Amino acid sequence: MSLYDSASLAMIPSGIKDGKLYSAKPTDGAGDFTFTRGSNLAATRVDENGLIEKGRENLLLQSNQFDTTWENSGSAETGGQLDKDGGNDAWLLTKSSADGYIYQNISYTGVQTYSVYLKANSLNWARLQINVSSGTVLAYFDLLNGVIGDVGPNNIDTIIESVGNGWYRCSISTNNTSTRVRIYPAQANNDVSGTSGSIYIQDAQLELGLVATDYIETGATTEQAGILENLPRLDYTDSSCPSLLLEPTRTNIITHSEYFADSSWSKSINPSIFSTSEVSPDGSTGNVYRFSASNANVFVSPTTGVQYTISFYVKSNGAGKDKFKLRLGSNESSDITATNEWVRHSYTATADSAVAGIKTAFSPDNEVDILIYGAQLEAGSYPTSYIPTYGTSVTRSVDSCSVLNVASLIGQSEGTILFDAKFQDADRVNFSLSDSTANNHITIDTSSSYSVFARIVAGGVTQAEISTITSYFSNGDTLKCAVAYAANDFAFYINGTQIGVDASGTIPLCDDIKFARYNGSINAYQNVNKVLLFKSRLSNTELIALTTI
Questions:
Q1: Cα dihedral: 54, 45, 348, 371 (round 10)
Q2: CB 74 within 8 A of CB 100
Q3: Could you report the per-residue pLDDT of 431-483, keeping only the tens digit for each?
Q4: What is the tally of structural domains in the chain?
Q5: Is residue 12 part of a domain?
Q6: What is the CATH number of the domain that holds 265?
Q7: Is 2 exposed, middle or buried, given 0-12, 13-18 or 19+ CB atoms closer than 10 A?
Q8: Residue 234 in contact with residue 243, Cβ under 8 Å?
Q9: Is the pTM of this model over 0.90?
Q10: Closest Cα partner for 209 from 249, 242, 256, 246?
């Protein structure tokens, strides 16, 4: 029988839903973890395809029920029409007066993209429009030839994409405060004056960001997809196998992490910053910018005296001008060279002036021509996962994961813990069994001096504490830790090596499992690869096998 077969609990990151992390054992759900993070869509992960996955939300109501929340102005709609997928979910939008349109009132601020699937009927043109606080954002679309007509002011981007059977997904993007979205049947380019005619419409979406992502159906409320508020993140950054990503609260103080043309980004010596059709690290087109300049900076303003980490995704533009630096105040990274692949580069320092950004390197000729995406500036000593921002700074809350009242899965007189993770931070309680008090717990901790130790406390008295030397690990190291315990028989192994043993002590009664201190504080910040619990004290030979990389 394998060691896995004898485990009472096995958490190997795989099955998840919003608020839940499933354990592979036991199969009755008794060992499934409750997961919380917060109330927004700030979290991201790297998915199995190596792409950044974000949380997404369709901000429109009744996104394909155009006779409900939508209102008419000289128009009428008829449902049950042949749709883009061969069903009957499309609508016929018919105008009955000049400037006739259908609309929905909204109120959102920041970078946003409005998209609708459209098809010609008796009219070959359509107009999409967003009413904003400073006017309108609009564009005309030729639904017969699949081309864009006139585009109004305030547009960041305008796209028409064929999806087959005469249907096109049409979208417009802006950075503004929006108040209403509209769909017009149009007689021709820049002409909605006719009093009759119709087009087909389907699946409207308004979302934060520079690009139209996969459609999300809504009803009486907005709907979300991707990385939800309390969805555990299975992250593939470093492996073909996922790990559970657990991170601290962090704020991206950069208000526009992708829209580098915004005025919140200061540009010294007038660099050239413009959007490209390059595919970004999230798999989209339309949210990558080209930074081309001589002796220039692109920067935002942090608070002086604070330690920050700044990070950018960077890729070569193929022009042979690939050297750049990251900057925090007067502190600068060494020269960095962009490659033909997207790479996230970071730099940590204490800001001694209100400048943080990316700049040209002096070598070889003080010029740069690179592609940039996903800027982040966060207080802290290392970069955490990307937090997208579209007009305001955004905070991602701490990941918290535990399963309570499971004494039947924990060895009460003897047992073994395997905790396999990439350790991302020192001075953390990475894993604990406890009764949620200080009196009874078994923990795997790290110190501020980067040592790792196992501690067993019963009845409020420390029974055993076995520790590594200081500076035992660096941030990002993978450690397979095993703690074995029985009365007067404790052992601690890491990566196949015995750290130490203790031959005196009793066993605490525990019923809760946490990626945190026994009382839920000092959460773990790490990528967890695996957790196994056994209700027996495995032999030292088995501990070596269990922890050997």
A1: -60
A2: yes
A3: 999 999 999 999 999 999 999 999 999 999 999 999 999 999 998 999 999 99
A4: 3
A5: yes
A6: 2.60.120.260
A7: exposed
A8: yes
A9: yes
A10: 256
